[in-house]
Design brief:
With 447 residues, the chain is of the alpha+beta class. Helix content is 36%, strand content 23%.
Length: 447
């Protein structure tokens, strides 16, 4: 069923109707106008470039009703315009040039006649984007009722705090992304591939903190690996070029590698980051449990020094990891895919998959785990060359895992599970957090 901005408005209206926001409930007509104008704005260009802009529904009369007692230095502010600007496609296109979504959001409100207007610019958006893209662990407070971003042509992304309310992508309304990195075959396969990471970290801490330290951190290590893959996919998506990368135990068979490469820095940076993070956390816990909580008058200088050194090393390695992720993602910008070993060492780029037989059907999974009753069979011919090549390789090479990013930004994961080739669409690659302000039926059912 084809969805429109009106359908998006109805869906968001139903969500906000029972939300605990403390703000005015925008009428359905206001939401419809908001999303229709944004949708049509996404179809425009300015100076030959696509429009990308974010708007936040923010009360012009009382934009900050509940400020915290202590405001952090990088908290948002809203700078009002000298006069209100009508909320039209033309004005949105013009203002978008001064409102880079990575730094700014347009403040929008509506009057007593339900007429929308743009009344200011909200700063410090960088910290929000950094968090949802796994570039930061700090989740700053968000202004207004909700925000809507134009991500691409016909692509509107509606967020309340850090939770996705809905995404209208062309004519499809998406209210949930599939988290293949949290459970299911993709998570299991990446867990199997993390053996070298586990061994490297465990060896380091056997003498430092005891051989059992990694038992409590192995899940965290897998999460860092998954987040690193998400960050690569997000960077590839930003290029709007389309691309693919393949993780496979056999990086030679069935592949024609144009540019051979041996780049293992991503592996080393992940290992170092996790090592320093474990060390920093462990030293801090020791200080808290054995000295501060017991109200000791003195603290050994060596513990204080160890904690600070580990924190500094962790920060430096975090920057190294970011650089390695950007390096790998950039390799996808030329034709052909990027091939990586299971420990994420790049073995080549500009890679072409040699012609091999593809499966008759690909099965689309709507959840991270594979439930055969809910699989949707589709023909590989419905997809382009990049997808069909990945289908063929993953079908013929068990244990391989492919990710394909389309030019329109869609991200898909592909692997073989038993006698079926499984593909996940609309996979979750950003850091979404459930908002406490949204109503959840199970909260009132004793579940």
């Amino acid at each position: 069923m084809n969805s429109t901005p009106k359908d998006l408005a109805k869906f968001v209206f139903s969500k906000l109707k029972r939300a605990k926001t403390g703000a005015r409930q925008p009428p359905l007509a206001v939401l419809t106008t908001l999303f229709e104008n944004l949708f049509f704005t996404s179809l425009q260009t300015e100076e030959g470039q696509l429009i990308k802009v974010t708007v936040t529904l923010l009360d012009a009369e009382n934009p900050d009703p509940n400020p915290p007692r202590k405001k952090v230095a990088h908290r948002w502010t809203c700078v009002p315009f000298g006069e209100r600007i009508p909320f039209t496609v033309k004005n949105l296109v013009k203002l978008s040039k001064a409102a880079d979504p990575w730094s700014t959001s347009l403040a929008v409100d509506y009057d007593a006649h339900n007429e929308l207007f743009i009344w200011g610019l909200i700063d410090q958006a960088y910290h929000y984007r950094s968090f949802i893209n796994y570039e930061s662990t700090f989740s700053p407070e968000q202004p207004g009722l909700f925000r809507t971003a134009i991500n691409d042509i016909g692509n509107l992304h509606v967020m309340l705090d850090y939770e996705l309310i809905a995404n209208l992508k062309h004519n499809v309304l998406i209210s949930n992304y599939v988290d293949v990195f949290a459970s299911g075959p993709v998570r299991a396969l990446l867990g199997q591939h993390s053996t070298d990471y586990q061994a490297a970290v465990r060896q380091h801490f056997t003498d430092e903190l005891g051989s059992d330290v990694l038992d409590d951190w192995s899940g965290y290590l897998n999460n860092v690996i998954s987040r690193s893959l998400c960050r690569i996919l997000l960077k590839m998506q930003d290029y709007q070029h389309g691309g693919a990368f393949l993780i496979t135990p056999d990086t030679e068979t069935g592949l024609s590698i144009k540019h051979h490469l041996s780049y293992g820095r991503l592996f080393r940076a992940i290992v170092q980051f996790v090592k320093f993070d474990i060390a920093s956390f462990t030293h801090t816990e020791t200080i808290m449990n054995e000295y501060i909580d017991l109200e000791q008058n003195t603290l050994p200088s060596h513990l204080y020094l160890q904690e600070n050194v580990a924190a500094t090393d962790k920060s430096e390695t975090s920057d190294e990891l970011k650089g390695a992720i950007m390096f790998v993602a950039a390799l996808s910008c030329i034709d052909g895919l990027v091939v990586l070993s299971p420990d994420l060492e790049v073995r080549g780029f500009g890679v072409v998959i040699r012609s091999v037989k593809a499966p008759d059907l690909v099965y689309v999974a709507t959840q991270a785990t594979v439930d055969e009753r809910k699989l949707l069979p589709v023909s590989p011919s419905h997809y382009g060359t990049r997808h069909r090549s990945m289908f063929a390789y993953c079908w013929n090479h068990a244990g391989s895992l492919g990710f394909v990013v389309s030019q329109d930004g869609d991200i898909r994961a592909i692997t073989r599970v038993g006698d079926k080739l499984i593909m996940w669409e609309n996979i979750k690659v950003q850091q979404f957090i459930k908002s406490k302000r949204l109503f959840r039926p199970h909260q009132h059912q004793g579940v």
